[in-house]
Amino acid sequence: MTTESQSLCTRSMQAPSSHHRRAWCPSFKLREVASMYCTMVAIFFIILVAALQGTAPSENHFPYKVPLDPEGILELSWNISYTEEVICFQLLIKELKYGVIFGMSDRGEFDNADLVVLWSDGKNSYFGDDTVHLVYGFLDEPFPSLEAINTSAIQKGLQRVQLLKPNISKPTLPPDLEDMEITAPDIIIPNQETTYWCYIKELPDHFSRHHIVMYEPIITKGNEALVHHMEVFQCAAEIEKVPHFNGTCDSKMKPEKLNHCRHVLAAWALGAKPFYYPEEAGLPFGGPGSSKYLRLEVHYHNPLELKGVHDSSGLRLYYTSMLRPFDAGIMELGLVYTPVMAIPPKETDFILTGYCTDKCTKLALPQSGIHIFASQLHTHLTGRKVITVLAREGRVTEIVNRDNHYSPHFQEIRKLKKIVTVLPGDVLITSCTYNTEDRKLATVGGFSITEEMCVNYIHYYPQTQLELCKSAVDPGYLQKYFHLINSFNNEDNGNYSNSSVKEQFASVSWNSFSRDVLKSLYDFAPISMHCNKSSAIRFPGEWERQPLPKIKMGLKEVTPQCQTIPGLSPASPALVNIDGKKG
């Protein structure tokens, strides 16, 4: 097989012209599982085999792109048409041997993945689709047929990316725009698969109040496939002095005060474009009541464990002194960081839910409400799905954000396709689904990466005093659960109440009864509501043993409208002989 350009396409769109390229038009439908809505869309698919140098089309054709493999051999770019419900992919390959595999997978595995395969038997070249994390593989030897390809024996990998970017025009930027770069100071990326690097940056003295109106990534050239996601946090204003630090975030040398740097200013993940605030709002930083200390956190994904790689990646903040009409705010929804919310071991899809109740929104939100324009979902290692919905007058009316294929290793602030307005008296419900199949003990809520969280950081305007609207099960009812389980299992619980909640969960004998009762407890027991100001002080009122919001009806799920491929059974791959002969 040569490295001349090859193209396969559907629908009416055409690939950039090339006199080497020949086109075939079978009709493909692939499940788009990287989107927040898990929508079934008609796919316009292109495979373009070309050198990365010199033959790539203009970025206007494919505005979104992401390197797939750590060495940068494969680069995926794409475009979206919401009106035609079409995604156009382009795959650029530096060196093609005997073929390539590309597809979409639920969690990054090759089993049961939707794959398209370009391969050669040494004489002729073929293309087929086999019956979504993006998955890829390299074929280093010829194969006589599609069935002969053993995906367990080839070089392969996965990449996480959000494909369905919102179709939002860029707002006009102010004339006095300034920028600030917050980057790692020429660090050497550790030769291990996963590293979180922390770096403290200090704002200039007497830095006045500004609005952040945009930010974008700065990626060291050559490290595009290693820098996975980055965040900039502002430290708590009450911490007068934060020690300077430059090292891994799990280092024993990391100062404790860095744990108080949690106010998100910017977040970027692989494949994301520059982030723009709406023209009517900006994120305030600087000035009185604002910390001068910022924490950069960079997640490096180095599966090949490359050594000696220098990096100075980070984020560039664009800000203005011409303050916009509204301050943007960031609010935490979901579950309180507490061990009373726990997931039993060996669970495949255990759900925990946190509430921002009507009582809190009535008290804390202005009469005209707030307007959510972006969202960042967050769990730790066992999180698999996250969703936040809005309920009004007892009925779920819309989805704020959802990711049915969530990965804790891929986190970004995502612009919503449309602004969601939350009025006083509305309820915001955040649910997270967890998988603990590989754990022997219960996973409790908490700050450690081995503990769990369920959070949605919503970005909204106008800013209010409400910074945290979260819940947890009432601790007293949880103790009743432990007492019931011990009695049922005839276990001695004489000193049980003196143990910590984490120790109590670790002592539970997990069987169908203890699991089902815990699920029921979380579904029906009263909650402790945290309706908090930025000072971590609750709004006035009674917030303990609050009843769960009564939701009468949920949203109806939209049935995917994907047509079957004419004349093709689900078990039969579509084959095309690229060299002109029938496959």
TrEMBL record:
It is an enzyme of class 1 (oxidoreductase). Residues 326-482 form the Copper type II ascorbate-dependent monooxygenase C-terminal domain. It catalyses: dopamine + 2 L-ascorbate + O2 = (R)-noradrenaline + 2 monodehydro-L-ascorbate radical + H2O. InterPro entries: Cu2_ascorb_mOase-like_C, Cu2_ascorb_mOase_CS-1, Cu2_ascorb_mOase_CS-2, Cu2_ascorb_mOase_N, Cu2_ascorb_mOase_N_sf, Cu2_monoox_C, DBH-like, DOH_DOMON. Residues 180-305 form the Copper type II ascorbate-dependent monooxygenase N-terminal domain. Pathway: Catecholamine biosynthesis; (R)-noradrenaline biosynthesis; (R)-noradrenaline from dopamine: step 1/1. It holds the Pfam family Cu2_monoox_C. SUPFAM superfamilies: PHM/PNGase F. Its EC number is 1.14.17.1. The chain crosses the membrane at residues 34-52. GO terms for biological process: dopamine catabolic process; norepinephrine biosynthetic process; octopamine biosynthetic process. Keywords: Catecholamine biosynthesis, Copper, Cytoplasmic vesicle, Disulfide bond, Glycoprotein, Membrane, Metal-binding, Monooxygenase, Oxidoreductase, Signal-anchor, Transmembrane, Transmembrane helix, Vitamin C. Its main location: cytoplasm. GO terms for molecular function: copper ion binding; dopamine beta-monooxygenase activity; L-ascorbic acid binding. GO terms for cellular component: chromaffin granule lumen; chromaffin granule membrane; extracellular space. It is a single-pass type II membrane protein. CDD domains: DOMON_DOH. Its cofactor is Cu(2+). Homotetramer; composed of two disulfide-linked dimers. Catalyzes the hydroxylation of dopamine to noradrenaline (also known as norepinephrine), and is thus vital for regulation of these neurotransmitters. Belongs to the copper type II ascorbate-dependent monooxygenase family. This is Dopamine beta-hydroxylase.
